[in-house]
Amino acid sequence: MTFAPLDAQLAAALLSPPVLALLGLCIGSFLNVVIHRLPLMMEREWRIDSAELLGVELALPAPITLSTPRSRCPHCAHTIGWRENIPLFSYLALCGRCAACKAPISLRYPAIELLTAALFAACGWHFGATPAVLLWCGLSATLVALAFIDLDTQLLPDSLTLPLMWAGIVASALGWTPVPLAASVGGAVAGYLSLWLVCHAYRLIRGKEGMGAGDFKLLAALGAWLGWALIPSIILLSSAVGATVGIGLIVLRRHDKDVPIPFGPYLASGGIAALFFGEQLTRLWLVPT
Hints:
It is built from 10 helices and no strands.
């Protein structure tokens, strides 16, 4: 990745794992907003489109964006001030409870902040103090958002997957990542077609859909960032984890086997594993027996 020269010591300080971890906490706080609000924004747009198509008037929820209205307590509607919204530290200071009504705050909010911080620090450690590390941090953050949105709603928004795919191709074309352009474009094509073929075969055999198109686009995005050679590793890892969790849910929690289980979190996990251990994974699959 070629940028304007930076002072080596300043770059090492600003892009060090501890500083990136602090940045990750802030980005993780924003991701909590994205995970909660983006599906609501999509639902409102769908209702508007449906009303226009049918020529009827529908009761619509209040407009919402990623920035407005301000965050509120879901129990008492208390507006959350900036002192109550400092990533992780506010949660600890408030002992995990609303400042107004003392209702418990979900542990998932600080967990996502810590997860994002850990991934940013890992990117700093793995890729070093170069401007390119910010690209990999951005990829990690987007995968976190997609994983939790899919977990909550079984949706993988095009507004995240498609820009992520094109960003990977553009970054490759500009030489900002070590993945050659041909490998990036090939990865996007291979990622999309591999899951599409599996889904199409499942539909022919079982007569019903086995996977959503969002999964195809997410794997295409991972292929664009990591190259076609890592597609098999991502599929194998995500399928193994997904099958294990799925069987566990069916056996231990009596999960109905006909109720779909979101695959996005497993694809995101496989992509993150390939991001940090891709070379080792590829060597592992290619070891002669």
